[in-house]
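Key result, reporting period 2: structure in, sequence out.
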């Protein structure tokens, strides 16, 4: 359940950047330019998040997304202060470690990987 809920929330970060759904990106509510760093991040969040939601290729997708969230934290949040609550990096830090866990643990019994015998 943790994998599925986290992936569902993660996909929303991407849809916000790419489609302004359910809301647009702050501060003006728009979308990211497709080939910008935020746009590429949004594409990865939607594609990899959807695969994580289904539990397909869980370990490599989770490892990739863990690294992406670490980069997001240190590039965008950490320069604004040490504490994640202050620098706005709680989501990035938490997703980094949730995906790192799933890169080691796999998708679990409710995953396409388990159905394929790759658990």
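The corresponding designed sequence is given below.
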């Amino acid at each position: 359940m943790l994998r599925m809920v986290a992936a569902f929330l993660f996909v929303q970060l991407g849809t916000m950047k790419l489609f302004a759904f359910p809301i647009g990106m702050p501060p003006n509510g728009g979308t990211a330019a497709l080939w910008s760093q935020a746009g590429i991040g949004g594409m990865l969040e939607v594609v990899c998040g959807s695969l994580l939601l289904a539990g397909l290729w869980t370990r490599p997708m989770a490892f990739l997304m863990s690294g992406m969230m670490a980069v997001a934290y240190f590039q965008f949040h950490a320069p604004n202060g040490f504490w994640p609550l202050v620098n706005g990096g709680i989501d990035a830090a938490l997703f980094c470690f949730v995906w790192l866990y799933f890169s080691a643990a796999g998708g679990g019994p409710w995953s396409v990987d388990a159905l394929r015998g790759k658990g």
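Residues 2-115 form one domain. The mean pLDDT is 96. This case is discussed further under Risks and Mitigation.
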